[in-house]
Amino acid sequence: MNIKGRSFLTLKDFTPEEIGGLIDLAADLKAKKKQGIFGNSLAHKNVALIFEKTSTRTRCAFTVGAVDEGGHPEYLGIHDIQLGGKESVADTARVLGRMFDGIEFRGFKHSTVEELAQYAGVPVWNGLTDDYHPTQILADFLTIREQFGRLKGINFCFLGDGRNNMANSFLVGCGKMGVNLTIIAPKSLWPQEDLVELAKGYAAEAGSTITITEDMNAVEGQDVLYTDVWASMGEEDKTAERVALLRPYQINSEVMAKTGKKETIFMHCLPAVKGNEVTEEVFESEQSVVFDEAENRMHTIKAVMVATIGD
Ligand code: CP
Ligand code: NVA
Questions:
Q1: What is the reported pLDDT for 235?
Q2: Distances from the Cα of 66 to the Cα of 27, 49, 54, 291, angstroms
Q3: Which of 136, 222, 250, 287 does the annotation list as catalytic?
Q4: Chain mean pLDDT for the chain
Q5: Active site residue 269
Q6: Which of 30, 130, 220, 296 makes the best surface tag, with the fewest CB within 10 Å?
Q7: Does 297 participate in catalysis according to the annotation?
Q8: For residue 84, what pLDDT is reported?
Q9: Is the beta carbon of 258 within 6 A of some atom in ligand 1?
């Protein structure tokens, strides 16, 4: 895999071999860190971390990942810089690109991360937009591989808000990597048809299936049940309406049992609203791997930085 100098905006831009290569690199960096072995591939590299929205995992993953490899991360909160207020996205991109070797962006519009990438002249990494959260998928796929020893052919089911950044990203990621994806959501929260068609095209090539349904019986036979908050960042005003709409899609013990498989794992990108999309009982159960996922954010984000700007 050689993705030096490239931005990481969505998984659409990467081949299955490149995505698999990033997961392999992350697994290798993780194993080395556990043995106390650190690389130096980001020495003298400075990375800018722009956050329009709040973050625990993504911010910390970029920070720790960069420092582990000898790099310097600089956090730029939305109130710290001129972006969006006094200075345009294109000008900010050109300024930061003159000083930094890579730029992470988390925020609202996906077009902002695209514009940063267009003008920065250095790799730009998407740390979550309203539409996509691609680094989360790498962490989740590493976690699934650790649990099942493979990705291809895994039956993966996403429940809840079927048109948010996580569902969109799983459509692309599962399609590319040959994971069978089922999204269970009310029709009003189904993903956009053109994205589903794109994902079905990827899946046909990889030999997997993409299913969108309202039917909770579709949890039968699933290896992974995954959920996310019912109202994403920026949609807080929709919380009450979503809670009413999505209540039947909560992952609880009955839903876990309904898979018919004892080995089924529970996953969540976090942060979670316990009592809404998942019960406390499932969250704390043996089947829950949510903190492995959280840890793997760091190893996979480190891999993205090493692969795109590392020496
Ligand atoms: N999963 C995730 O992106 O977490 P943060 O919002 O804390 O970064
Ligand atoms: N869909 C969630 C993901 C958080 C990591 C959000 O955008 O808030």
A1: 98
A2: 16, 11, 19, 21
A3: 136
A4: 98
A5: yes
A6: 220
A7: yes
A8: 79
A9: no
Task: Name the closest-CA residue to atom 2, ligand 2.
Answer: 232
Model confidence pLDDT, tens digit, residues 109-148: 999 999 999 999 999 999 999 999 999 999 999 999 999 9
Nearest Cα residue to atom 3 of ligand 1: 58
Environment class of residue 277 by beta-carbon count within 10 Å: exposed (0-12), middle (13-18) or buried (19+)? buried
Task: For residue 206, give Cα distances in angstroms to 168, 202, 213.
Answer: 18, 6, 21
Q: Whose CA is nearest to atom 4 of ligand 1?
A: 57
Ligand 1 closest atom vs CA 294: 1
Q: Is 183 in the pocket of ligand 1 (CB under 6 A)?
A: no
User: pLDDT digit string (tens) for 155-197?
Assistant: 999 999 999 999 999 999 999 999 999 999 999 999 999 999 9
Q: What is the arithmetic mean of pLDDT over 46-57?
A: 98
Is the model's pLDDT at 221 over the cut of 90? yes
Instruction: Read off the tokens for 163.
Output: 């048109």
CA atoms of 105 and 50, how far apart (whole Å): 5
Structure tokens at 22: 């990033």
Q: Which two tokens stand for residue 37?
A: 């072995």
Quick one: which of 139, 285, 158, 282 has its CA closest to 229? 158
pLDDT category at 149 given cuts 50, 70, 90 is very high
What is the distance between the alpha carbons of residues 33 and 308, in angstroms, rounded to a whole number? 20
Catalytic member of 59, 242, 269, 299:
269
Per-residue confidence (pLDDT) for residue 216, from 0 to 100: 98
The question of whether 60 is a catalytic residue gets the answer no
Q: Is 136 in the pocket of ligand 1 (CB under 6 A)?
A: yes
Q: Is 133 a catalytic residue?
A: yes
Does 66 have pLDDT greater than 90?
A: yes
pTM metric for this prediction: 0.98
For atom 6 of ligand 1, which residue has the closest CA?
Answer: 55
Helix ranges (H only) for the chain are 16-34, 57-68, 89-99, 110-120, 134-148, 165-177, 193-206, 239-246, 253-258, 280-283, 290-309
Quote the tokens at residue 205: 């090539």
